[in-house]
Structures are given as structure tokens and as C-alpha cells.
Amino acid sequence: MSWLEVTDADVFYGRIQALHSLSFSVEEGEIVSLLGNNGAGKSTTLNLVSGIVRPSAGTMTWAGKDITHIAPHDLVGQGIVQVPEGRRIFSTMRVEENLLLGGYRVKDKRAIRQRIEQVYALMPRLQERRQQEGGTLSGGEQQMLAIGRALISAPKLLLLDEPSMGLAPLMVNQVMEIIRTVNAQGTTILIVEQNAKAALRIANRAYVLDTGSVTLSGPATELAKDPRVVEAYLGTE
């Protein structure tokens, strides 16, 4: 059994079906990427895993336990943490205050302080701006802050929704390297990303979604060469 296993999941928004018998898995220690065009169901898939939306059919298991109907805040307690699309930082709060909020379920204040220092070591730019309001940061810095805030809860599975959206190419590379480092330090990652080239570069495996179903899957290196993926998502050099 895989670490995270989603099996035959259906999700509806009213009468609109967003996911159709969706099945995929994530193994411990992997970076798994979800690719697809707008409306393919990528963000809905992350929201399903984090408990924000409920399936009308299908199951989810996490480390062998059924989590299909567990509330989002309880999933955070179990180590499943999402960085939402658009960063959603608290713009009028300082960088360090944003990070402190990431530890709202952590009772050990010493652990919170230690994790904040680890975030600063990973992303020195945040330490330089620790007293600035979040809204004064650049887009890339805000993305770093959103990732850093999630790391304070010491996630076992980190869900990333479009982390490169709106960023300059140089900043995209920096954010992807941060994600790779977080993974190397022991955090499993499920990433939704429209920048397929960047996502496949760091992923171990990938799934391609279309209208709420998996249409292709395999090792990232193989999908990066698949003519269907190249034509639809990568383009030609």
C-alpha cells in the first residue's frame, strides 16, 4: 500500500463534476507532480487530499489509515499541510508573525522557535525581512513565506498549489530549488504546477489530469520526453 492512496474519487461542485473516478498514489519521500490545463482538476485534487472538499465516492488512505472524511485541521495534525494557490499570506502582519501562525497546532514553543530558525536558514531573504509586513514583499518572497509558514508545522506531506505562478524565471528556479531542498530534508511533496518544465525537472513521478481524470502517469523523466506531454505542456525548444 502506498503512503497516500486516492482511489476512484468523485468530487462535485453542485451539479458540476470536477473529479471522475480519480486514482493516484504518492510514496514516502517522493516529489509527485500533477500536470494539466486550467479546469483539469489539479487544485480540486489538492483540496481533496487536504480535506477542504469531500468526495461523493471513493476513498483516501494515509499511512494505511482511512482519511476520507477527516477534517482539514485534523489532517494538519497528522502531517498533511497545503500551501494554497495565491500564497494567502497575512499581508498586514510581519514575516515572523506569519511564520508563528504556521505553528498554531504546535504546543512546544521551543520547537516553533527552532523551526523558524530552520526556515530562515533555508530562505535567508525571509530573515532579512522578518520585521516587514508580508504585503511589502515581492511575489517570490511571499511564496517563500507561504512555504515557510507551512514548514513550521513540520509537515510529512506538503501540498503545493501553483508555487511558480506569476514569478519571474529566476525566482521560479529559486523556489523550485527550495522545494527540492525541503524534499531532501525528508518532506514528501505533491505539487500542482502549470510550469510543467519546472515541475518535471524536480519531480520523481507525475500524473497528467484532463477533465478530472488521470490520462498519463509515469516517471517524470519519461513524461518529459513523451510526445503528448511535449506538445501539450512543454512546447519545443
Q: What does this protein look like?
A:
This protein has 237 residues and is of the alpha/beta class. It folds into 2 domains: 156 residues, 3-Layer(aba) Sandwich (Rossmann fold); 64 residues, no CATH class. It contains 10 helices and 10 strands. It has a 6-stranded mixed beta sheet, with helices on both faces. A hairpin with a 2-residue loop joins strand 1 and strand 2.
**How many distinct beta strands?**
10
CATH architectural label of the largest domain: 3-Layer(aba) Sandwich
Please give the CATH class of the largest domain. Answer: Alpha Beta
Given helix and strand content, the structural type is alpha/beta
So, the CATH homologous superfamily of the largest domain?
A: P-loop containing nucleotide triphosphate hydrolases
Radius of gyration: 17 Å
Q: Order of strands side by side in the largest beta sheet?
A: 6-7-8-3-9-10
CATH topology of the largest domain: Rossmann fold
Count of helical stretches: 10
Mean pLDDT comes to 92
- The stretches of 5 or more residues where confidence is low (pLDDT under 50) are none
Give the overall silhouette. Answer: globular
**Secondary-structure element order, N to C:** EEEHEEHEHHHHEHEHEEHH
Q: Distance N terminus to C terminus?
A: 39 Å
Q: Domains counted in the coordinates: how many?
A: 2
Strand content: 25-35%
